[in-house]
Specification:
Elements (H helix, E strand, L loop, with lengths): L5 H25 L4 H10 L17 H11 L4 H16 L5 H7 L8 E4 L5 E6 L2 E11 L7 E7 L6 E7 L4 E3 L13 E11 L3 E2 L10 H6 L8 H4 L2 H22 L12 H33 L6 H27 L11 H13 L6 H12 L7
Parallel strand pairs: 1-4
Antiparallel strand pairs: 2-3, 3-7, 4-5, 5-8, 6-7
Helix pairs in contact: 1-2, 1-3, 3-4, 3-8, 3-9, 4-8, 8-9, 8-10, 8-11, 9-10, 10-11, 10-12
Length: 382
């Protein structure tokens, strides 16, 4: 496969926006990404931005994937969410042992996996050559189109986790996804009754990219010199920026070339709402890009990442989400009675941005407290 440039890939993402917007209602009705949208994403090769280059990747960094998600979210929040996760997951694969990467990509560069990262419902037992695992994991977005799943279980060290990768025959999907927001993400439950996972399909996410350098040693990709925990989660924040931009697009197009009393372009109140919302989204996008650029720059110099650095990145991810929610709320409140109609795209933006912001990695209160404690020299809370 020929590698594509950043410019060409973002052009393809932009071209998909009206297509995904037209399918947004159908996506919600299906409660998963329609097969034709999955095919469009695969045909565009946007997901391959996450792939290591030897497995069909474009040789670009993840900032391009996040910018693609900014675009796709303007058309459909659920599709952008699943795109962003699938792409980040294929980047995560680069941290696994090489044999696992070969096994996963044996079916081609368009192989996808979903995940369930809350370990509370899982049970794991070390056995010869690997682990036996069973349990149930919720919120596995994009699982219907995936042929693998990754689940989190408790690790050997106190408070640690392991991520285990399993092929589709080893787990079942249970349709539990009936949600107010992100309806089309298909974030269903994954159930494993009893499966063996060889040791080559396990990683410690706290060590990956930090004191465990498999990804960097195999691929020499700059982002693999950044601790995985610092890079993870930005894929969750990026779609919210796109959703908020989609709300701005809709709000603006509705008011363009209108005049007179009421909710028209002449309304100072609506002008002020639009200005503040647009500034919030621009700030969220800029903060997202700045932190990613900073991490890659520090990786190029071989810098270490302190606990305060990690706390700041977690803070910023959640603040990107917070800014995006504020922007959509402001426009929804100014949208009048029409904004609550099922036919109005702004109500979907409103539901989706709130639904996505409830992800634990984007929850403001906890990460804000932890940053404050770190900045003030206090130990983190449990």
């Amino acid at each position: 496969m020929d590698r594509l440039s950043r410019h060409e890939l973002l052009r393809r993402a932009e071209q998909l926006v009206p297509v995904l917007k037209e399918r947004a209602t159908k996506t919600e009705e299906l409660r998963q990404i329609p097969p034709e949208s999955v095919r469009d994403l695969l045909d565009s090769t946007l997901i391959r931005i996450g792939n290591p280059e030897r497995y069909g990747g474009h040789g670009l960094e993840m900032d391009t994937a996040y910018d693609a998600s900014f675009e796709l979210g303007r058309g459909c929040g659920s599709t952008a969410w699943c795109y962003s996760l699938w792409t980040a997951h294929n980047w995560w694969l680069g941290h696994f042992p090489e044999k696992c990467q070969d096994e996963f990509f044996a079916t081609g560069p368009d192989t996808l996996f979903s995940s369930g990262l809350n370990p509370a419902g899982g049970r794991v037992e070390p056995v010869a050559g690997g682990f036996r695992v069973a349990g149930r994991w919720g919120f596995s977005s994009g699982c219907d189109a995936a042929t693998w799943a990754m689940v989190a279980v408790t690790g050997a060290r106190a408070g640690s986790l392991m991520w285990l990768l399993l092929p589709r025959p080893d787990y079942e999907i249970v349709d539990t996804w009936f949600a107010a927001g992100m309806r089309g993400s298909g974030s269903k439950d994954v159930v494993i009754k009893d499966a063996f996972v060889p040791a080559r399909r396990a990683i410690d996410p706290e060590r990956a990219g930090a004191d465990e350098k498999t990804g960097w040693e195999i691929h020499a990709r700059l982002s693999y010199r950044v601790p995985l925990r610092c890079m993870a989660g930005w894929d969750l924040a990026a779609p919210l920026v796109g959703i908020a931009q989609g709300a701005i697009d809709e709000f603006t197009s509705r008011l363009l070339r209108t005049s007179g009393p009421g909710r028209t372009a002449d309304s100072v109140a609506l002008q002020l709402r639009l200005a503040e919302a647009a500034a919030e989204v621009d700030a969220a996008r800029a903060l997202h890009r700045a932190d990613i650029a900073e991490m890659l720059d520090r990786a190029s110099r071989g810098d270490t990442f302190t606990d305060l650095d990690r706390a700041r990145y977690r803070r910023d991810k959640a603040f990107v989400a917070r800014l995006s929610v504020r922007a959509v709320d402001r426009l929804f409140e100014g949208g009048g009675a029409r904004a609550i109609l099922d036919s109005d795209p702004i109500q979907r933006c409103h539901r989706d941005v709130h639904g996505a912001s409830h992800h634990a990695a984007l929850s403001w209160d906890f990460v804000a407290e932890q940053f404050g404690r770190q900045a003030l020299g206090l130990p983190p809370t449990a």
